[in-house]
Amino acid sequence: MNRITPMVLSVTQLNTYIRSVFEQDPHLTQVFVSGEISNFKNYYRSGHLYLSLKDEKSVIKAVMFARYTERLRFVPEDGMKVIARGRVSVYEATGQYQLYIEDLQPDGVGALSIAFEQLKRKLEAEGLFGKKKQIPKYPERIGVITSPSGAAVHDILTVLGRRYPAAEIVFCPVAVQGTEAAPQIADAVERFNRLNCADVLIVGRGGGSLEDLWPFNEESVARAVAASHIPVISAVGHETDFTICDFAADLRAPTPSAAAELAVPDRMELAAELRGMRQRLNQAIESVLSDAGRRIDQLSDSGVFRNPAERLEQRKQVITQFSSALNGHMSRKIQSCHTILSSESGRLNALSPLAVLSRGYAVACDENGSPIGSASKVRKGEFLSMKMNDGNIDCVVENVRMRKKKRSEAGVL
After folding, report:
1. Is there a domain that residue 6 lies in?
2. Which of 45, 91, 101 has the alpha carbon at shortest distance from 71?
3. Is the Cβ–Cβ distance between 353 and 371 less than 8 Å?
4. Are 67 and 128 in the same domain?
5. Nearest to 19 by CA among 102, 65, 86, 87
């Protein structure tokens, strides 16, 4: 019996062989695997996604290359239940088998629904849905962004023409479905703002499936609407349909027709309001005129109009009384001032040196006219001037006699 000599393989040869076995197995070339995402990694530069799929008992590694990730409508997250379609093969470098994913769908909830919620959370966290602008009460120009062939544009134009024909309508036709719709809608909003050719914008379309309405859930549309300095009314689908555009807009309308009603006032209501204002104005004018007439009648019946001369005599009498009282007060005030002046003059005169001289006294002055306060300052033969009350006497000193000081003056106790 011949025995087969075993072959010695390199690691690479072994992994390559195992890989070929996997790839030749028809059960592994296309499989659908349900599991929960874990260890998710998104390599943004390459576009590849790396993750693991697990259930209660097992885990398998998986990779999704960039050429397949471009078709994803949502961003995978850890903990998300998904169904993956792909093939099972071996990565030769590590000898590890893994799932090569070609398509990925949420398990139980549609990809578009998840993408909607993910984008909504992202933009809400940025504050994109926060501040809302006021819709003008009487817009002069209304911008309409929708399909030229749908029922929405007909409904909008009909309602605007019926409610407020004074407004000018600026229409910008765009695609509202398909891959070209979102860029066209965003560009139309930016163009209206750039040209500043509307006071309010209506953006929307009629009803449809989630796929049909999806352009209004694109991030580019939401950011263009939120950045608009012109107030935007979103009118997408029917009353139960909600889009990201609705949250980014300044006002959400349940239908395109309702958007037109919210954008402009009703001319019939305005006419009724004007009639009411006119009536109230007329009543106010009549009330003012009636009050003025009663006031004139009261003034006409007053004494000043019936006998104005008597009224003037009364005023003259009052003025005369005030004048007499003022003159009396001024006379008493002047007399009081004279009395005070005489008293103060007498006191000043009593202190005047001239009053002393008038009683027979004289003041001795030196040749410079300065008073001499002591005999010790005078010398024999010195020239003096004696100042009297009615003139001066010039004299020469013949002798100086000093008076002896008393003991008290000398400081002896």
Report:
1. no
2. 101
3. no
4. no
5. 87
Indicate the SS3 state at residue 134: coil
pLDDT at position 413, please? 33
Q: For the sheet with 251-252, list strands across it.
A: 168-173, 141-146, 200-205, 232-236, 251-252
User: Which residues lie below 8 Å from residue 74, measured CB to CB, with a gap of 6+?
Assistant: 106, 111, 112, 114, 115, 118
pLDDT digits (tens, 9 = 90+) for 365-385: 887 878 887 878 888 888 888
Closest CA to 31 of 78, 69, 75, 88: 88
Cβ atoms of 169 and 144 within 8 Å: the answer is yes
How many other C-beta atoms lie within 10 A of the C-beta of residue 159? 20
- Kindly state the average pLDDT of the residues 20-34: 87
Tokens describing residue 405: 């000081």
The residue written with tokens 């090569």 in the block is 100
Same domain, 156 and 83: no
HSE-CB at 277 with a 13 A cutoff on CA atoms is 6
Q: Tokens 């999704």 — which residue?
A: 64
Overall domain count for the chain: 3
Domain co-membership, 249 together with 123: yes
Claim to verify: residue 105 and residue 123 sit in the same structural domain: no
- Amino acid identity, position 327: N
Shared-domain flag, residues 98 and 144: no
CATH number, domain of 241, equals 3.40.50.261
Residue 189 class from Cβ within 10 Å (0-12 exposed, 13-18 middle, 19+ buried)?
Answer: buried
87 burial type by CB count under 10 A (0-12 exposed, 13-18 middle, 19+ buried): middle
